[in-house]
Amino acid sequence: MENDERIKLRTLLNYWIKHNQEHSREFKEWAGKVKGWGEAEAGKKMLQATQEMNKVSEFLSQALSKLEKKEL
C-alpha cells in the first residue's frame, strides 16, 4: 500500500503546485486592480501573498523532486 500512497502523494503535489500557480496569477492580477483603486497598501500585501505562494510551490516542487529521486 505504501506505493499507492506514494503515487497519490505525487499526484497531489503536482496538483497543489499547479493550483498555487493559478492562485498566484490571480493574486497578482487583483493586486493590480486594487492598486488602480488607490489601495496601494492592500495591493502590496497581495503581491507579498503572491511571493509567499510562489515559495510554497517551490518547497512542494523540491519535495516532489526528492520523492522522485528515491524511486529511481
Brief summary:
With 72 residues, the protein is an all-alpha fold.
Structural description of this entry:
There is one protein chain. 93% of the residues lie in helices and 0% in strands. It is elongated, with a radius of gyration of 16 Å. The protein starts with a helix and ends with a helix. The chain has one domain. It has 72 residues and is mostly helical.
- Biggest sheet statistics: none
Structural class: mainly alpha
Number of strands: 0
- Topology order in helix (H) and strand (E) letters: HH
Taken as a percent bin, the fraction of beta residues is: under 5%
Intertermini distance: 18 Å
Summarize the SSE layout with pairings.
Elements lengths: L1 H35 L3 H32 L1
Helix pairs in contact: 1-2
Name a few traits of the molecule:
single chain, 72 residues, mainly alpha, 2 helices, 0% strand, elongated
